[in-house]
Amino acid sequence: MTEWRNPKLSGRVVELDGIRGLAILLVVIWHLFGNGQIDGLRPGSWQAHLFLSLGFTWSGVDLFFVLSGFLIGGILYDARNSENYFKTFYCRRVARIFPVYFVWFTLFMIGVYFAGSTSSAPLRVIFNDDIPVWTYPLFLQNIAITLHRNWGGMWIAGTWSLAVEEQFYLLLPMLVRRSSKRVVTLIAVGSIVGAPLFRLTHGSAAASLGPYTLLPSRADALGFGVLVAMACRNEKVWAWLNAHSRWLLAAMLLIGCRLALMLGHRVYVYGTGLSWLDAFYGLLLLLTLIHAGTIQTAFFRSRVLVKLGALSYTVYLLHNGINMLLHFAIFGAGPAVHDWTSLVVTLLSLAIVIPVAALSWRYFEKPFIRWAHISFGYEQVAETRRPSSISVGVATPVTES
Questions:
Q1: Alpha-carbon distance 324 to 319, whole Å?
Q2: What is the mean pLDDT of residues 89-112?
Q3: How far apart, in whole angstroms, are the C-alpha atoms of residue 281 and residue 221?
Q4: Helices (H), 300-339
Q5: What predicted TM-score, i.e. pTM, was given to this entire model?
Q6: At the N or C end, where does the chain have fewer CB atoms within 10 A?
Q7: Domain extent at residue 339
Q8: Does 230 map to a domain?
Q9: What is the number of domains present in the chain?
């Protein structure tokens, strides 16, 4: 019996690029204009109001995780009967992730070498070996960050989320390989339930960073993405979701109101709050897919967001380090938007990052991706394997391009 294929997933869904663009936009806004800017600001000043108005822009990484769970989970499930399942998946992932990442890592090592222990404090913040540098090429920096309770060099600190994704890539293919749709769904639900329990039993994120940076801590975001992927591949579930899209919208708005009550109180978010946030983004993704190609999703088809989505990986890697280095070069201090001059410098850093990311995408990343897709393809076997019963419950700013 031929398995049902969702017609909405038959080609490239442009709106997904727009969602990716929104995710990186939120991340950039938080890192350049929000993160740490409240320190030392006069209450009631325009800078303080700016900081508070940024709200949940820090959660852009959660949107990345949900989107990654959806795309990777769907890709793996659709290809689970392929004879070259593992080889194709990992070769394509390496071609997408490694080239830019290891260029950035090499620049970080050069910075660490020249910065040294005698450098000024702001430069040491950008380039340091406070966590073991060997963890970066092995994508274990999120674990090192937790153990050392230190973000390490800010040039590359944001790659903790990439480490979460890489660890996700190691686990999910093995779980999906011989699993039925039902089992994959149970795995996703197990990760959604397990993640907040893990966060609640492992202390505060402020104390250990683990409830924020470890894979089990973020498994609910990835799990929501996988759950949406499975829902989109079940004909009866998809029909029900389409018929009740207004209910989904109402649920998303109610969750949004719940999140608004947490605004300015991030300490409450790290327990169950992240799960509410991930549910919000999961519903946003699902509703976008249901209404793909309509006026309701015109926002995610905007040229700016779609283009930004294509550049999101490199922008994610570069933006924070470039901004910090530029502020150090001009002011000899860390980045902070405290007057119009510092605002202009921050915007200048973004004006540098976007063209560099565009050039990287066109002449460096895209050729690697094209080569990988030509060289490695999923070859389906003639007969469908019988899924085994996998009962282990486990469950990202990079996705399949």
A1: 9
A2: 96
A3: 9
A4: 303-331
A5: 0.90
A6: N
A7: 7-375
A8: yes
A9: 1
> Which residue shows structure tokens 């070769």?
91
Q: Does residue 78 belong to any structural domain of this protein?
A: yes
Domain membership of residue 360 (yes or no) is: yes
Instruction: Report pLDDT digits (tens) over 202-258.
Output: 776 656 688 889 999 999 999 999 999 999 999 999 999 999 999 999 999 999 988
SS3 call for 41? coil
Of residues 385, 327, 329, 400, the one with CA closest to residue 37: 327
Rounded distance between C-alpha atoms, residue 28 and residue 100, angstroms: 18
Alpha-carbon dihedral angle through residues 155, 157, 161, 164, given to the nearest 10 degrees? 120
* Percentage of residues of the chain with pLDDT beyond 90: 68
CB 50 within 8 A of CB 337: yes
Q: Which pLDDT belongs to residue 347?
A: 94
Q: CA-based diameter of the chain, in Å?
A: 68
* 337 phi/psi in degrees, rounded to 5: -90, 90
- Which pLDDT tens digit goes with each residue over 254-300? 999 888 877 655 555 677 889 999 999 999 999 999 999 888 889 99
Contact 368, 99 (CB under 8 A): yes
